[in-house]
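Supplementary Methods. Inverse-folding protocol.

Structures were first reduced to a discrete structure-token string of length 136. This string, shown here, constituted the complete conditioning input.
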């Protein structure tokens, strides 16, 4: 498969900075108290001296995208279960997608929203070569 990818990149002159990989990961929130509207996100570089266990069983999906040149220039998306969006979710960065689905997982509608509103404009803004953009 790597040889096929290499041949495709050479044939179309696609530079590594135009090659992306998208994936999604379901995580359990586990922060805060039951029935609390507070959500907590932590950097993976944070070093905890102790571990707290939350009682929230809420699952969310994180959509993330990295570039083959080693960068992660595309803003992530967060998918929550349910039908309600709270305005305060958008206060951090309006380029981060906040979406809802019945299950909290990515479905066709949410995936298309992330592709159209996050990936296409952000990848296009970085495409200085004018060559095709490849999303794997």
């Amino acid at each position: 498969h790597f040889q096929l990818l290499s041949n495709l990149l050479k044939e179309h002159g696609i530079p590594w900075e135009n090659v992306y990989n998208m994936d999604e990961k379901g995580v359990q929130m586990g922060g805060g108290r039951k029935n609390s509207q507070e959500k907590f996100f932590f950097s993976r570089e944070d070093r905890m001296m102790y571990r707290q266990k939350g009682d929230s069983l809420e699952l969310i999906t994180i959509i993330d995208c990295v570039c083959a040149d080693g960068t992660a220039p595309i803003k992530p998306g967060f998918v929550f279960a349910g039908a309600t969006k709270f305005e305060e979710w958008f206060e951090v960065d309006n380029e981060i997608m906040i979406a809802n689905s019945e299950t909290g997982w990515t479905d066709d509608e949410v995936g298309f929203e992330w592709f159209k509103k996050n990936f296409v404009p952000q990848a296009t803004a970085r495409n200085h070569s004018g060559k095709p953009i490849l999303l794997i």
